[in-house]
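Our collaborator T.R. sent over the components below with a one-line note: 'Predict the complex.' Nothing else. No constraints on interfaces, no templates requested, no preferences about which chain binds where. So this is a plain run: every listed entity goes in together, and whatever single assembly comes back becomes the starting point for the next discussion.
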Amino acid sequence: MIGLVGSPVYLVFVATFAVGLYVLIDSPNLVKKVIGLNLVQVSVFIVLLGAGYVEGATPPLLPAAEPHANPLPHAIVLTAIVVGVALTAVALALVVRLHSEFGSVDVRDIETRLEDDG
Amino acid sequence: MIPLLEVVLLLVVLAAILVAVFRDPIVATALFAVFSLGVAIVWVLLAAPDVALTEAAVGAGVLVILLLIAAVKTGRDEADSSTRWRPSLDSVNLPALLVALAVGAPLSYTVGQFPALGDPTAASVSDVDPTGEPSPYAAYIGETAAAFDVPNAVALVLTVFRNFDTFGEVVVAFTAVVGVLIVLERATLTTTRANTHRDGSGGGLRFPDPYVMSPVGMTAVRLVVPLVFAFGVYLTVHGALTPGGGFQGGVVMGSSIVLMALVFGHAPTSDWLAERALVGALVGGLWLFLAIAVASIAFDGTLFEVAAYPLATIYLVDAIEVAIGLLVGGVVTALVVTTAAGVLRETREDSTADAVGGERP
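Returned assembly:
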């Protein structure tokens, strides 16, 4: 199927990705930037799970009736969610550390401070 | 077509846009929780209950708590609460909007080339690959999978077919805990005396001291936490048969501790947690997984070939799920507790800070 737009699920991927990117660029607040990064991450999960879905699919539990959804994207995405929260925590720890060093999480303030320090 | 899918997708996009509209990080975090819950429902509708369990516990639970901790710790004290709920519609960032559209346009063209959602002839869900050989999908849910007698194909992929990848993932999660400890300059996961600030406080969130929560909240948490924790244990050990497994169970177990930290205060919870138990869960989980993977050599298998064991595969799946559950539960608890405790040297006036960071604002 060739077209300019795909199914609604893939459209949501595009919309969420674009919104996440907008938040990432727009907000000077680092915590807000981390939220934007998470929006982009979830949007990619939507594509992966969308690709694993079959019309009328049941969950990949083998006794259930066919057809099953592809279990591989499920395994990838559920590990990626846990790894994602772990990496988000590292990012947030860096934000907390920056706040204790510079007294601000606004990138404009931090850049000004860095320029002043030479 | 899937009933309700369009409605939930609309909610998800709406929540995502609202995250962008509200500038305040705390408000944006609350809206991100709504977004995550909507996404978890999408996963259920796309026949992915394992992912939905993880998303609901992480996206709408642990992640939101972590973001709130960071937002509260880094927010200005005189939080302009009057403008907090005011959407910033008047100040659309035009360059950012242009970049988002410039990236979104080719992306929407690309997804237009994808097979339609649920197309049974699509390569990702077809029984044969383009060369006519049986596809990995056919192996994951077909005769190969049936030979292992483990009903939950997701658990099977995680712990048998692709367990080397899974091991890499849990090592990343473990490393993240170490990374947070290094960034925050803490020596231990829980607040011990060595970690206490000079003023004697645990260095946690600046709640009124002594921290008081409503009796309703405290009673509810006392009742709920043991049940949630038990549900996490159930998810972990029953993951081979039903949706669930180490990742989901670990996250649920961890979030029950996080719930306690939320209501009783982070510092008392951190004091209550035994450092040894937490480190034991983290390191023990990792070593148990590695031991199972390496010991398969003794049964003429290769590294990580758990099917070589002279045991029904379901026992090995369960053992690996327990290892993952221990580690992930420990990771989630440790990440929230250490991030909430914050940077150890928070007051640096009397240290060498002046030479490094200049005067504090």
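Summary for T.R.: Chain A touches chain B through 93 residues (CB under 8 Å).
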